[in-house]
Specification:
The complex is a heterotrimer of chains A (295), B (426) and C (283). With 295 residues, chain A is mainly alpha-helical. Chain A has helices at 8-36, 53-59, 62-94, 100-108, 115-126, 132-139, 153-165, 169-180, 184-192, 197-226, 229-234, 246-255, 259-294; strands spanning 39-40, 48-49. In chain A, strands 1-2 form a two-stranded antiparallel sheet. Chain A is flat. Chain B has 18 helices and 11 strands. Chain B is globular. The chains are: A mainly alpha (295), B alpha/beta (426), C mainly alpha (283). Chains A and C meet through helix 1, helix 3, helix 4, helix 5 and helix 8 of A and helix 1, helix 4, helix 5, helix 6 and helix 7 of C.
């Protein structure tokens, strides 16, 4: 098939809907963001071009650098904690233990509920006066481990991240769909070769879902960089900006009608993300294409 | 290889049908009567807002009176932060709503800069302007333009729970900060947490108001004209810091939001709190015991400062899109006059418990006792000045809670707290 | 079902125990908020604020009456259903077409097209309020359901293309080659072979688009103004006014709003996946 002539007309037709939507909802807005990121603009006065001064100001700001660091921590936590947890869960469920359909549905449910409710529950859980996390720790004799979880610089960021990372349903669904579409014959063959469960997962499942793992990790990195909502709801960046992320900073600047700064932050987010994703694809890309030839 | 495809196929067909239906649903913008002027008013005063029922009634009455010529349509906008975002976005796109409400602060006063808003300065010069509480129109004036009409105002005195004070053996609310700390010790000895505080939420509301009270006491009525480098702001920070120390507030105050700070007061955990009159309804319905024992007062006198100040500010202003059509402009003005007519202000104030920028006569109607205390606190104030948040853009207001958290956690001294605020304003 | 081994050794038992503890942990983590949400929706606000983990002293059914009466949920329900289904359909149709040619028709530059589209995942959509508002009102779609539909469909394009592409790429070449030999056109290969074979991916992506559309709030508020184009999430926020939030009534509204999503999720997602996986086993 590779030798056949390229059907450009057909390809263009198939790409057209996405091209239209993408130009209108991504290309145009992004150009807008990049351009206004180089101006001083409050949305009302005329824009005045200020070159890179917004960026210079941003990188000189401690909170901005802290937020950028926090975004990397988020991306890392989602890609290297949440995705692996989701993968293990998917592997276990794919072996169809008792009640696996029920578990699969339940694990995904937090994604159905609005973030507002979940965030408020965790805020109550972490609360230093009436939160049950501290009650639980005291009850099992770990009084010294109690904290004002969302109010201490050392614990606030891990607390917000944990709240998100433990909800594995999103990636589990993607990976489970991949595992379930692996032909059973591959496992049967491995079993006949004497491979135990662990070996089957390592040598059959993992290579087969490698592509989806890269997909999931890429998404996780993107979501980590874009992260905004849970932090906004739970800490608003506090205490002392220790949980701040770029999305939140952007939101605050936008709220103050400082579109120049806000969009400069937006540009930094998109560009950093782009670089990071190219990096991931470079690293995993080779492995991926290698696995593809096996198929 | 056979795959059961019916379910997916059907779902997609169904959905495609819905797309079509919705395409048409967008086309039914019906035209109003020939000469009827329709004014759209996206408002936050809907749903559970205490002003919502009366606003709806007033608009209905106005529409009835002007049937055929003017029609005001309320567009309900829930969620305050969302409403602000929407206003900012619409205005940045050059599309100002016919009528809207905004919370006046240095961020929203930027709306005045373009040629987008209707200027009421000429209209307010006559008898209409005289109906307003003195100073409120000045507060809505920038560069001699009055592009918004002062509407709702607030006063945020110190609240305290007399029953808890009695329990701790404190006779009356302390007059000076020395007495205040002594009272705090008595409260703690009785097992009561003295104050509700919070560094969280979007603006560290309760603590921000405490800070404003202290700043006002130290710096007088014109304190907000001073630069933040003035020693007043650092001194006030040191006092606020002490409110967080030695068990003077709850353990969850750092990172806590309005639900935490208000919840502790309502539950009777804390004895002292600050909030505006809109919170009266909440205390009354949720914690009748606390409501019965709540008194409001001025902040204690700061060492070397003045006493009896109150924090008050414009809460919401009415604004309108500029229009070149004189009849449309007249329609807007007549609606604004209707909404600010003293008898209507009286109705909405009585109904909601809110305070307004227009004077009205109170007869012997049953005013809520706590609301009455608010009015008295305003009347008895040696002076009233605005709060921190009303004098900075919203990003700086957000930085207040961050800087406060840092100071309370021992990562910054009061001086550095102020420096962080200054840095944010740059 | 050749993936089960009978546990015979102690090590196997330990592994089994570990497995169940692992599953149980996540079960608790995920069910807890749901149960908490439902219980909280029956409390008074004071109870909720000060004793968030207690059982309500008096079950407040009035919260549900509030939820229905104040926010007018029923009409908003209908809008949300229309918006969510339509945006999902539009999105999946467009994304699957693009993903198909990118993954199965190796034209020159397909890699670049893919990268450009997928880069959209990185865009923080909250940053785009001003351009979206201008775009939607410029198109005359302000305050229409279609404005929301097209926005939601478009915003989810990068994720959908990314996911569907991943699934489509893994379809073995041989399956398609038969169709090529039979003389199928590009469109026929798409509709007859690739689209049906990648349904697992389509459903997965569709689920995400649907949930995004169902739960989205910021743009729903920004791009609509009147009741005729408003969605459920706006109804829920009716309990959040400037200074006071009626949390427990809001929770009642949230509970009411998630029941249909759970229903849709189980009905569509699980049913479809079940159908497909049983098909895969036979294949």
């Amino acid at each position: 098939m590779s030798a056949s002539r390229t059907n450009w007309k057909g390809i263009m037709l198939f790409l057209l809907p996405v091209a239209l939507l993408y130009c209108a909802f991504f290309l145009y807005p992004l150009v807008f963001v990049f351009v206004t990121g180089c101006t001083s603009w409050n949305g009302i006065r005329a824009m005045s071009f200020t070159g890179l001064s917004n960026y210079i100001k941003l990188f000189g700001n401690g909170t901005f650098r802290l937020s950028l660091r926090n975004n990397f921590i988020w991306a890392f936590a989602l890609a290297f904690i949440q995705v692996p947890l989701a993968t293990i869960t998917a592997m276990v469920l794919a072996r169809k233990p008792r009640g696996w359909r029920f578990l699969r549905t339940v694990y995904f449910l937090p994604n159905v509920i609005s973030q507002v409710a979940i965030a408020m529950m965790w805020m109550a859980l972490y609360n230093a006066e009436y939160g049950i996390l501290n009650h639980f720790l005291s009850a099992i004799g770990l009084e010294s481990w109690t904290h004002n979880w969302l109010g201490e610089i050392g614990t606030a960021l891990p607390a917000v991240i944990a709240q998100q990372v433990l909800y594995i349903g999103y990636f589990m669904i993607i990976i489970l769909a991949g595992i379930l579409s692996i032909p059973d014959s591959l496992y049967e063959a491995a079993e006949m070769d004497g491979a135990g469960v662990l070996r089957q997962e390592l040598y059959v499942t993992l290579p087969m879902i490698r592509g989806l793992l890269v997909t999931s990790m890429t998404l996780a990195v993107a979501y980590g960089l874009r992260h905004f909502e849970a932090t906004y709801l739970m800490t608003n960046g506090g205490p002392a900006n220790s949980t701040s992320v770029l999305g939140l900073l952007l939101y605050k600047k936008m709220g103050a009608l400082d579109y120049g700064q806000a969009n400069a932050i937006g540009s930094v987010l998109v560009l950093t993300g782009g670089l990071l994703i190219i990096f991931i694809r470079r690293i995993f890309g080779r492995v991926e294409s290698a696995s593809e030839t096996v198929q | 290889m056979k795959y059961p495809m019916r379910t997916t196929g059907r779902a997609l067909c169904f959905a495609a049908g819905l797309v079509l239906v919705s395409l048409f649903s967008g086309c039914d913008r019906q035209d109003a009567g020939e000469d009827e002027i329709v004014l759209k008013w996206p408002t936050i005063w809907v749903g559970k807002d205490s002003k919502a029922p009366m606003v709806e009634k007033l608009v209905a009455e106005f529409n009835e009176e002007h049937a055929g010529s003017i029609k005001v349509e309320i567009e309900p906008n829930p969620d305050y932060d969302g409403y602000r975002n929407k206003l900012n976005t619409a205005i940045a796109s050059g599309q100002v709503p016919d009528i809207f409400v905004f919370n006046p602060d240095p961020t929203t006063f930027q709306y005045y800069e373009g040629d987008l808003l209707m200027d009421f300065s000429e209209d307010l010069k006559g008898s209409w302007g005289d109906t307003f509480v003195s100073g409120t129109i000045d507060a809505a004036t920038k560069n001699e333009m009055v592009k918004s009409i002062p509407y709702e105002q607030a006063i945020t005195p110190i609240w305290y729970n007399q029953a808890l004070f009695d329990k701790a053996g404190i006779g009356s609310f302390p007059k000076t900060f020395d007495e205040f700390w002594a009272a705090c010790d008595k409260l703690k000895a009785a097992g009561i947490v003295p104050t509700s505080q919070m560094t969280g939420g979007t603006n560290a509301w309760t603590s921000m108001l405490w800070y404003s009270h202290i700043v006002a006491g130290l710096g007088g009525p014109d304190v907000w004209k001073k630069p933040f480098s003035d020693p007043v702001f650092e001194k006030a920070a040191a006092i606020l810091l002490h409110m967080y120390q030695d068990g003077n507030t709850t353990k969850d105050a750092v990172g806590g939001d309005a639900a935490v700070s208000g919840g502790h007061y309502l539950a009777g955990d804390t004895a002292i709190f600050i909030n505006g009159p809109w919170y009266i309804g909440r205390v009354k319905s949720d914690a009748p015991e606390v409501y019965a024992h709540t008194k409001v007062t001025a902040a204690p006198q700061t060492p070397g400062g003045s006493s009896g100040a109150q924090i008050g500010f414009l809460l919401s202003n009415l604004a309108a899109a500029k229009t070149d059509d004189p009849t449309r402009r007249a329609a807007v003005i007549s609606f604004m006059k209707w909404m600010t007519a003293p008898e209507n202000i009286k109705r909405i104030s009585m109904d909601s418990g809110s305070l307004f920028c227009v004077k009205f006569q109170v007869g012997d109607e049953a005013v809520d006792p706590l609301q009455k205390q608010f009015m008295e606190a305003a009347a008895n104030a040696t002076f009233i000045t605005s709060h921190f948040q009303g004098n900075v853009t919203t990003d700086v207001a957000a930085e207040f809670g961050q800087a406060l958290g840092k100071m309370v956690l021992g990562e910054a001294a009061p001086k550095e707290f102020v420096d962080q605020i200054i840095e944010a304003t740059e | 079902m050749g993936r089960n081994r009978s546990p015979s050794l102690i090590a196997d038992r330990a592994a089994s125990l570990a497995k169940w503890l692992f599953l149980l942990f996540f079960l608790i983590i995920t069910l807890f908020p749901l149960i908490w949400l439902v219980i909280s929706s029956f409390k008074t606000n004071l109870e909720f604020q000060t004793k968030p983990f207690s059982i309500p002293e008096l079950w407040q059914f009035a919260n549900y009456i509030n939820a229905v009466s104040i926010s007018g949920l029923h009409l908003l329900f209908l809008h949300t259903i229309v918006v969510s289904f339509a945006s999902t359909a539009l999105n999946i149709l467009a994304a699957s077409m693009a993903a198909f040619v990118i993954s199965r028709e190796p034209f020159r530059g397909h890699e670049t097209v893919f990268n450009i589209v997928v880069a959209g995942i990185l865009v923080p959509v909250i940053a785009l309020m001003v351009p979206y508002f201008r775009l939607i009102s410029g198109l005359g779609l302000y305050d229409t359901l279609f404005g929301l539909i097209i926005t939601y469909a478009a915003v989810s394009i990068p994720v959908s293309v990314f996911l569907i592409h991943g699934f489509m790429r893994s379809i073995p070449r041989e399956l398609e080659e038969a169709a090529v030999i039979d003389g199928c056109s590009l469109a026929q290969r798409f509709t007859r072979v690739i689209f049906p074979l990648s349904r697992l991916g389509l459903v997965t992506a569709g689920t995400f688009v649907f949930l995004f559309s169902w739960n989205e709030f910021i743009y729903a508020l920004l791009l609509t103004s009147s009741v005729k184009a408003r969605t459920l999430q706006l109804g829920i926020r009716f309990f959040k006014s400037q200074f006071i939030t009626d949390y427990t009534s809001m929770y009642a509204a949230i509970v009411l709003s998630i029941i249909p999503t759970i229903f849709v999720y189980i009905l569509f997602h699980d049913k479809i996946i079940k159908g497909m996986t049983s098909g895969a086993v036979k294949g």
